[in-house]
Amino acid sequence: MLEKSPTVLVVFEDDDTTYEILSKTMEQNGWTVVRAPHTAAEIKNVPDTLFQCDVIMLDILLDPSLDGFEVLKHLVAKGFRGTLVIISANARKMLGPLQALAEGYDIKVAGAFEKPVDWNRLQKVIGTPPRKTD
């Protein structure tokens, strides 16, 4: 089970290569990366704790049965209060509308990025996770 932590980055991404690159890059910068499901059938069974993270990265086109707008409905329904980062390669014209809709639901959007993602720019908008103090 995922516990709320400012070091957790949840990623909704259907492309395995993009996810692997993103995951390795963000882990090297101190994030714990968790891959979220990317089909309509899978998202219905996601535990509420997945939506309690501080940062979610959301691809717009995930699966024929699920897109970023549908995921946004789940984020709102689950009370997500973290920061959202939107990414897309094939739905670039939808970056702005999805960002506006998320902000209309009072979700903080740190940025909307076209793929390939500029990792330095991404790191600037989400920052470096705070160090855990044990």
The number of helical segments is 5
Radius of gyration: 14 Å
Record the strand order, biggest sheet.
2-1-3-6-7
**In terms of structural class, how would the helical and strand content be classed?**
alpha/beta
Largest sheet: 5 strands, parallel
DSSP strand (E) fraction?
15-25%
Q: Helicity, in percent?
A: 25-40%
Query: What is the total tally of β strands?
Result: 7
Shape: globular
Mean pLDDT: 87
End-to-end Cα distance, whole Å, is 20 Å
Give the uncertain stretches in residue-range form.
1-5
Query: What is the H/E string?
Result: EHEHEEEHEHEH
What does this structure look like?
There is one protein chain. The protein is of the alpha/beta class and 134 residues long. The protein has five helices and seven strands, in the order βαβαβββαβαβα. A five-stranded parallel β-sheet has the order 2-1-3-6-7, sandwiched between helices. Strands 4-5 form a two-stranded antiparallel sheet. β4 and β5 (66-67) form a beta hairpin. The longest helix has 13 residues, at 16-28. Mean pLDDT is 87; it is low at 1-5.
Features:
134 residues; alpha/beta; five-stranded parallel beta sheet; two-stranded antiparallel ribbon; 5 helices; disordered N terminus
Gist of the model:
The chain has 134 residues and is α/β, with parallel strands linked by helices.
